[in-house]
Amino acid sequence: TNQKFEGEARDPDFNTIFTKISDVELKPDNNHLIAEVNKIVVIDENYVVSDRRGKQLLVFNRNGKLENSIGKDGDGPGEFRHITDIDVNKQKEILLLDERNRKVSKFKLSGKFISSVNVDWAEAIIADSENGFYLYNAHCGIEPDSEENLIKHYNVEGEIDISFCKPFFKFGIVPGDFVNDKDGNLYVTQFFHYGAEKYAPLGKYLF
To answer: What pLDDT digit, counting tens, does each position of 28-56 carry?
Structure first.
């Protein structure tokens, strides 16, 4: 929203919208240099940094010191080819979506590999309130019955039990964002569409 400053309309300064509580300098070592940060999640007082180009997850403490790395490049258990997205479940386990290997892997903060499950192609992941997760494919399909632009819920057993979401457009590649709130409701947006769609945890369309 534009605000007026001294008779002029211009974009507001960052500091007029947000208040900085603190900042932390991340201190990787020479064996774990950060190439591209695509997401950061917080577990307790630790920062988990997803480095997509560096093909690594790095765990830093509250002071920015590197504690450990998680996973490695590959196709086997505890390995991944492309970190598409990450999230944290209520058990404080890290869920890693690897679109190239088409799987979701689960890790402890210590770096210990727990399990993995094969999944359909997707671009974003959100942990649910139990021990499953949602995946979102943000591309609209040309075919009416295309499985693109769908939210799919995977249960504890790693099986799809709910699939929902309606396309913003009949066709076109318009990726967007996928987030949730404290009540577990899901929100999807797409570029060039100035709005959002909201769904209840079980897939009911809210607006």
So the answer is: 999 999 999 999 999 999 999 999 999 99
Which of 75, 50, 71, 74 has its CA nearest to residue 60? 50
CA–CA separation, 112 and 110 (whole Å): 6
Other residues' Cβ atoms within 10 Å of the Cβ of residue 27: 11
> Per-residue pLDDT for 23 more than 80?
yes
Cα distances (angstroms) measured from residue 26 to each of 30, 41, 59, 103, 109 = 13, 14, 10, 29, 17
**Helices then strands (H, E): number in the chain?**
1, 19
Measured CA distances, 54 to 71, 133, 173 (Å) = 12, 25, 27
